[in-house]
Amino acid sequence: MNIFFGQNQLKKNRFGNPEKPTKTVAVLGAGLMGAGIAQVSIQKGLNAKLKDMSREGLARGEQYIDKNLSTSVKKRQMTAWEKEGVLTRLTPVLDYNNFKDVDMVIEAVFEDINLKRKVLAEVENNTGPDTIFASNTSALPIADIAKGCKRPDKVIGMHYFSPVEKMPLLEIITTPQTSKETAAAAVQVGLQQGKTVIVVKDGVGFYTTRILAPMLNEAFELLTHGVSPDRLDKVMKKFGFPVGPITLADEVGIDVGKHVATNLAAAFPSRMGSVNLSPINDMVEAKFLGKKSGKGFYLYDGKKKSPNPEAAAIIKKYTVGENDSKISDEDIQLRMVGVFTNEAIHCLQDGILDNPVDGDMGAVFGLGFPPFLGGPFRWVDTYGAQRFVDKMNHYAQTVSSGERFKPAQLVVDNAKAGKTFHSKK
Prior knowledge:
Layout: H1 2-9, E1 24-28, H2 32-43, E2 47-51, H3 55-74, H4 80-87, E3 90-93, E4 104-107, H5 113-126, E5 132-135, H6 142-145, E6 155-160, E7 169-174, H7 180-192, E8 196-201, H8 208-223, H9 229-239, H10 245-252, H11 254-267, H12 269-272, H13 278-285, E9 298-301, E10 304-307, H14 309-317, H15 329-350, H16 356-367, H17 376-383, H18 385-398, H19 409-417
Parallel strand pairs: 1-2, 1-4, 2-3, 4-5, 5-6, 7-8
Antiparallel strand pairs: 6-7, 9-10
């Protein structure tokens, strides 16, 4: 029921209706992410240009969309006639010609700050003064991407989750310079695309990536203390997550995980800088990049998955004692969910989140936090703030002497005052 009310709350555009509704979007990059963004746009009545640097890349993007729509026809979710009507709204392009009529450009290029700045400059030179530029980045601060651009008020973050056509969440990121009109337009597009939309403030990792990173870090730490990948996955699925953390790391990409973990460790060294990432660095060096390369923590053969003995050998190099049997399932769950939830509370404390509802919906619909638990803030309210603080302090004394488990001041204050994040009804 809490999830239902939360979703309904997010169906309203908190910025009001934009003065100029978006009718045409352009998506830069025809990979799986870009093609997915284009697909959900044309399926919901928007016109979309899909741009790529090569004909081959563009063709793959078109084929991806066509295949997904054909599957919908087979499942009788749409007719063949409706499919053709949807595809008429898609225009594949190789250049910026005719971009003057585009209301919003959404870039889905590689996660590189210099490339994104280059693309932003190209867009500003080839579009009208009112065109909005949205970056689909998972962790790079939007203000850094917008540095030196002509129209920072028109720049915003729109973080989609893969696969876009299946994942319901859209995380919109505003900077201090993003105008209310730009934010209103971005939220409206997200709602039109059928997304559950949360709006957060700019910062390294925003909200979802920032709270996922410490949980994956904790999984990597447990690996180096003898807990097997298979056990970690099983224990966290038992807690209620749809996939385990090690499978998730493989699906996201070990190289992507390394990149994000390194950036967040630099931004939050006291909480995220103590975990040894050497095994991950070695895996990237060995080209064990996850599902996309056929090898990660697991080996992939079609739909079959099995442990990767070479990855296990890398982890063993860094294992600090064989302590698997000494770590209970409950401790594995609470260590991982604890740092995840604690970072969510830090995000609320730091002003990245406006309210706990956005935090709960973002965790459930973007990261698979168990919906029956309502999200991290609802979970703490049920678990008990004082009990949570005590458990985190226990891990701070017995597992890590640094600040990895130090409870956020906001939950400490709640515990002292007997308060909850959500009002009691």
